[in-house]
Amino acid sequence: MxxxxxxxxxxxxxxxxxxxxxISNRKKRTISEIEYALLHENPGYYTQDExxxxxxxxxxEIPEVxxxxxxxxxxxxxxxxxxxxxxxxxxxxxxxxxxxxxxxMVPVESERYRKLKQQDEINKVKAMKSKxx
Length: 133
Prior knowledge:
Elements: E1 6-9, H1 31-41, H2 48-59, H3 67-76, H4 86-90, E2 93-97, E3 103-107, H5 111-118, E4 123-126
Parallel strand pairs: 1-4
Antiparallel strand pairs: 1-2, 2-3
């Protein structure tokens, strides 16, 4: 499932007021770190499905030669959307999908975030809360 002309706002229970780069002390990069790196290096390049597949390939360390078969298998499974990502839930990054479904991160403290939040022409949804209250 891809989003189009949609802005995912940070969650109501986000612990930050300004965007942060996800960094862990783990040997293997976390999903958040991989999402951040891909979106930071390639703004406006990935759709949600493309991004999640690339993250999957990197995180699971799947060899490139298995890409085609893995993609078929990956797309058959249901999975959480970017509203469940830690980027908008914990790290202060809005996720904007343009009319073509291409994704970019938007720091919560930025003027662009404020402008996107006020635009009537795009859909706005909040990231999922981290805690049940």
